[in-house]
Amino acid sequence: MKKSWWKILGLVMVAISIIAGFLGPVPALFLLHETIRNVYFHVPMWSTMFVLYLISVIYSVRYLSKGRIQDDLMAVEAVNTGIVFCIIGLLTGMQWANITWGDFWPNDPKTNGSAIATLMYLAYVVLRNALEEEQKRAKISAVYNIFAFPIMIVLMYIMPKMTDSLHPGSGGNGTFGDLDMDNQMRPVFYTATIGWILLGFWICSLRYRVRLLENKRNIIE
Amino acid sequence: MNTLQQVKTLVYKDIVLEWRSKYAINGILLYVVSTVFVCYQAFQSVDTLVWNALFWIIMLFASVNAISRSFVQESQNRQLYYYTLISPHAVILSKIIYNTLIMVLLSVIAYLAYSVTFNNPVGDPVLYATAVLLGSMSFASVFTMVSGISAKAGNNSTLMAILSFPVIIPLLIVLISLSQNALAGAPRVDSTNDIVVLLAINVITVTISLLLFPYLWRD
Q1: Where are the domains of chain A?
Q2: Least CB–CB distance from B154: residue in A123, A130, A151
Q3: Which pTM value belongs to this model?
Q4: How far is A175 from A19, CA to CA, in rounded Å?
Q5: Which residue of A97, A139, B143, B154 sits 20 to 30 Å from the alpha carbon of A133, by its own alpha carbon?
Q6: How close is the nearest chain B Cα to the Cα of A77, in Å?
Q7: What is the pLDDT of residues A171-215, one digit of tens each?
């Protein structure tokens, strides 16, 4: 119980954000209307993905400096979980885009950037499959992971700011927080973000522990 | 020997080796020229937007082909020999410099062949040349590190492509916008932002390559 308080906290926060997200008051805005509730679900996916990729790159650096195989397992599971959140983020975003911008895939730098970043992390998974030897796989994929991380940041957070984008906070648009969210929405949004990050980290740590057990069994045999 | 001298010697060695066989350079030059001809036969005439996009796509595929070879010729034994003599930083720096030279040559040839077959609509040739030079530098710096990674992973060309294409896309977007400015003959002040971004990304890639290559190299 002592160690699992953050898991319970994460679940409760996600539950609160779902209930409050669907039932709570939202401002009636032009074009957005009720779809503004998607901000409780779409944005936390990306925050969670970013946190997971950050964890992955930290563990890759640790692997390169210390050479412990556990660090590599954590790095790969963080990426695996991050990709799932990224895909959910793309799907919720596509749905939202279809309603507000009139197209499932509008030609938007942020949308394209996140799709390309997903391709990059899928390439990381393929690279791991291409390598047989365990140590070599861990080392080379750690190198690629660290190489890819700054490019992911450029793609998703810097390029959209430089060009015209439909997303808020880019290309001279105001951020979502300034323009559209009122003070009743803010607490729900932060609850959702923190809740999903905790949940994502929980899934990642479960997968890591399964990996670790499999790894241990393979070594004994 | 300090690192600078080591880099110089290694670049010289690569150039001499290439000059003796002339296999890679001739192969890749023919590849570029034939690709340009294939495109010319397929498109006949194009508007400026397609002209620009097509040029960069040709450059992209030619450079992947040219640079993916950069670590193949270094056999396991020769790597071991280097390992006893020189620092890994010298190895990766010399490869980046050598690949930049190859890419500059390649892009000049490609540009000439391209301008002769399709007519040349460039409004500001100096700026376009800058874009091409920066482009070859960026391709070289990104692809050298990726080819090092894919060489360690058994060197299949599919891996090289899937690892490098997502990584090069941000650079390609900036390059296309820069060269589009040059094509339109827009005032040069508009393009300074793009040039700064390109240089910044190059500096970042080279720094990361220098930091990471020692780990990649040790087996």
Answers
A1: 5-220
A2: A130
A3: 0.85
A4: 25
A5: B143
A6: 19
A7: 555 555 555 566 777 888 888 999 999 999 999 999 999 999 998
